[in-house]
Structure formats: structure tokens, C-alpha cells
Amino acid sequence: MRAIGIDLTQPGGIGAVAQSAATQNTRTLSELNKTTISDVLGDATKKLPADKAVTREDAEGVIGAEIRNKPDMSTSPGGVAASMAAAARLNQNK
């Protein structure tokens, strides 16, 4: 929702697919059979109806999600959170 600037989940959209995959993954025992982030986001630019610049709030949300989902409560250097933070900084300076 935040990525395209609207406040609803579009049926069949990336958010809906990601939520469905997350639910299904909790029921899947084999790690090999779980849906990955790249499965969901592989062609994201083709699926998004619009695009918007990354904001500080967007980056903070991604950083929080990455921290919550790692046992050591950290982000990965060069990972998604770091990329979002860098994009937000660049956009803030424009």
C-alpha cells in the first residue's frame, strides 16, 4: 500500500500475494517448498499500478520489519533496509 500511495490492499496485488504466501508458509514444513520474497517480488514493477519515491517513513517501516524478523535483531549491510534508507536519504536531498 505504501509503495503505491493508496490505503487499500488490491486483490491479486503484491500485498495480497505476500500475505497469502506468508500464511501458506506457516503451514509448509519443508523450507524448499516455501514461497520466497523473490517469488513474490520477482516482477514487482510490472505488477505495481503506480510508483512513488521512497520516504523516511517507508524506510523506517522496512527497517523495523527486517529487525523484527531476524533472531539477532539487526539489519543486513547492503540489504533491503539499507537500500530503502539510502533511497530515502537521496530523495530527501532533492
Automatic annotation (TrEMBL):
<protein>
    <submittedName>
        <fullName>Seed maturation protein</fullName>
    </submittedName>
</protein>
<feature type="domain" description="SMP">
    <location>
        <begin position="1"/>
        <end position="27"/>
    </location>
</feature>
<dbReference type="InterPro" id="IPR007011">
    <property type="entry name" value="LEA_SMP_dom"/>
</dbReference>
<keyword id="KW-0677">Repeat</keyword>
<dbReference type="Pfam" id="PF04927">
    <property type="entry name" value="SMP"/>
</dbReference>
<comment type="similarity">
    <text>Belongs to the LEA type SMP family.</text>
</comment>
<feature type="domain" description="SMP">
    <location>
        <begin position="35"/>
        <end position="93"/>
    </location>
</feature>
<dbReference type="InterPro" id="IPR042971">
    <property type="entry name" value="LEA_SMP"/>
</dbReference>
